[in-house]
């Protein structure tokens, strides 16, 4: 029997100026799921490309609690083909992945490898070895150049650096927010997908959780496209969150070298 993943999320916000807020925490291809907000007004669903979903709420002023529960059977997924539109979008510089500004920071051996899969694997090793994972080390405004100069960051920073180096080498790469059973400390997690022989595969330079049991939440050019909470007018304060992602089977061993498809 295939293993089943379970996700539970809870967070609180304080709306200080009324306006729409987009909540994007839905797991892709969930078998069952339920999103609840302590305010009982209607929401407007929004679907984006590559499986990202959001619910937009017109929240009144005050404190609100958001909960989400989902379950999904984990099975083998077919790799998604890389379209021409993907190539056009995911080889360009973006807000947090300024691939046009890193020429002096790219190790020469990455350029010399030529084979894209070998280049991606070398990028993952390089970022894993060069950066230190330090909770709270980076600012929300830090891009990949800031992270490379600082030498430390969190999962989103690792993903941004890998994406930037891939794009510098003309390899399509995109940012993915995921739930990651086995992650410690548990939270929302960020990884990246890169194009290998015309299909998307997932990579993670932090090596903090097995890729085989990750669940996609959102996909985009970088973290600017994949926020789990965003105001679309109005203002709010984020008061904290808890995230749990588990499976009912033993976690697989992931040595970080194989090709893994993210469902």
TrEMBL record:
Provide the Transglutaminase-like domain boundaries. 147-207
List each coiled-coil range: none
Q: Which InterPro entries does UniProt cross-reference here?
A: Papain-like_cys_pep_sf (IPR038765), Transglutaminase-like (IPR002931)
Pfam families assigned: Transglut_core (PF01841)
| PANTHER family, A to Z | BLL5557 PROTEIN, BLR5614 PROTEIN-RELATED
Instruction: State the protein's name.
Output: Transglutaminase
């Amino acid at each position: 029997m295939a293993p089943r993943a379970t996700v539970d999320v809870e967070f609180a916000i304080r709306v200080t100026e009324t306006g729409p807020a987009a909540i994007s925490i839905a797991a892709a291809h969930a078998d069952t799921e339920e999103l609840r907000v302590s305010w009982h007004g209607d929401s407007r669903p929004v679907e984006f490309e590559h499986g990202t979903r959001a619910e937009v709420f017109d929240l009144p002023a005050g404190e609100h609690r958001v909960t989400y529960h989902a379950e999904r059977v984990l099975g083998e997924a077919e790799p998604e083909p890389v379209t021409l539109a993907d190539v056009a979008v995911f080889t360009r510089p973006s807000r947090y992945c300024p691939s046009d500004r890193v020429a002096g920071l790219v190790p020469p051996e990455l350029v010399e490898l030529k084979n894209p899969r070998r280049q991606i694997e070398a990028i993952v090793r390089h970022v894993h070895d060069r950066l230190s994972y330090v909770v709270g080390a980076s600012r929300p405004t830090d891009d990949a150049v800031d992270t490379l100069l600082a030498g430390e960051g969190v999962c989103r920073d690792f993903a941004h650096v890998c994406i930037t180096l891939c794009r510098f080498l003309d390899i399509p790469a995109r940012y993915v927010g995921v739930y990651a059973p086995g992650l410690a400390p548990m939270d929302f997690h960020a990884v990246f997908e890169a194009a290998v022989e015309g299909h998307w595969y997932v990579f993670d330079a932090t090596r903090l959780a097995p890729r085989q049991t990750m669940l996609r939440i959102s996909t985009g050019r970088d973290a600017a496209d994949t926020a789990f909470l965003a105001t679309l007018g109005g203002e709010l304060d984020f008061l904290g969150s808890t995230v749990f992602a588990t499976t009912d089977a033993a976690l697989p061993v992931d040595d970080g070298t194989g090709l893994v498809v993210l469902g």
